[in-house]
């Protein structure tokens, strides 16, 4: 297709703009037509594209770009070099970079065809004067020693025919050319994807597991998919329930109580599988092993106990803390970390040996990334600490504006939510960028420890209990409160989303119950 971008390729016809020339529109008629032209060509409707070009007078790329592309595909390197000065480039583009890529392609094709003398001349007299880095030149020079064309292709990462490699070169060069001269590849598809992504991001109840997409209507997930109704109430504790946690498989949920017991419930059958009673004090924290065969329980008096979930039997007790706040497993199923207000962090093996100690601040919470490379802790001194577990060292800390009571780490290990009790806020942090991303407000927290969580499809929601007996759910990206769920008759201490089912979470309350 020939023509000059933004200029007539023939006599432009007068047509109704259908509103596209309306000054209130954010885009121009020319841009719309050119993008449609490109899309028609990409979809294989060349004749339709030609008719539209003739009727509109627009072309999706300039004459210079068309000639430049054709010269590349034909391997006419002299014409390619002659056209470079006439291309409309991006502001940051350097013609030397374009020249280097073109001459490199020329050099490689000569090597593949075993025209060694010509290739050497290109290297010495054309590539070398461009001063594009000695390392790149050395790499190209080393290719002269290749035994055959197969070796050249392998070491230069060329796949397919010369035509294929020229197509790859053309794709590389497109990033240097101004979008007004040549529309970026697959532009209409890119705009569709952006629109879909935006609609997904603003959909309060978006279900990322639903892959169906239509361009005919705007996207909106039905609220009925959201887990806003109590499906079951587990009753069995004789006092306040302080903690609740699903197994990784989602088959079981464990609850820890002030009554010194832990109950393992079957999610499907809705009954107690085991009741673990050998605790010396109220149970404040639980952690399932990565394979769900064991459970760690932490008590207010500092006791840490390991249980066999298959039998419900006590395996081992771990003594070392005066009181313990939290624990977290490493992915090998053999090691875990405990944190305490006694200023100690211990790395244990399941045989009961302390393998490493970190001594510092009074620890309120511990979380370990799924790959075991990173540990995040919170302390009484208003800090979020990030550790490299492989090197067993603290990398840095983030200082918060208030007292931090609890934390929860995202599945990818990059984000953490922390509860600030007195401020009655939940903060979402990017612990890699050390950046506060979002704040969530509306719940009630003053006297008690409230444990929040991320969950739902793609962890799109943040959920929290509250001292008013409600459960609050926010859209994670926008911080918008989307649900206030009632049902409990006292403080909701902990909420945990089922990791295997984005449509289910559990809550633990001072009313002695666990709701599913």
Can you give a write-up of this model?
Helix 5 (95-112) packs antiparallel against helix 6. This protein has 3 domains: 61-185, no CATH class; 188-223, no CATH class; 240-451, Methylamine Dehydrogenase, Chain H, CATH 2.130.10. The model is unreliable at 1-17 (pLDDT under 50). It is an alpha+beta fold. The strands form 7 sheets. A 4-stranded antiparallel β-sheet has the order 1-28-27-26, with no helix packed on it. Strands 2-3-4-5 form a 4-stranded antiparallel β-sheet, with no helix packed on it. A 4-stranded antiparallel β-sheet has the order 6-7-8-9, with no helix packed on it. Helix content is 23%, strand content 29%. The chain is elongated, with a radius of gyration of 32 Å. The two termini are 62 Å apart.
Give the SSE map.
Blueprint: H1 29-42, H2 46-56, H3 63-74, H4 77-83, H5 95-112, H6 116-127, H7 134-142, H8 149-156, H9 162-174, H10 187-202, E1 233-235, E2 241-246, E3 252-257, E4 262-266, E5 272-276, E6 283-288, E7 294-299, E8 304-308, E9 313-318, E10 326-329, E11 335-339, E12 344-349, E13 354-359, E14 363-368, E15 374-379, E16 383-388, E17 393-399, E18 404-409, E19 415-420, E20 425-430, E21 435-441, E22 453-455, E23 461-464, E24 471-475, E25 481-485, E26 492-497, E27 505-509, E28 513-515
Antiparallel strand pairs: 1-28, 2-3, 3-4, 4-5, 6-7, 7-8, 8-9, 10-11, 11-12, 12-13, 14-15, 15-16, 16-17, 18-19, 19-20, 20-21, 22-23, 23-24, 24-25, 26-27, 27-28
Helix pairs in contact: 1-2, 3-4, 3-9, 5-6, 5-9
Record keyword descriptors for this entry:
single chain; 23% helix; disordered N terminus
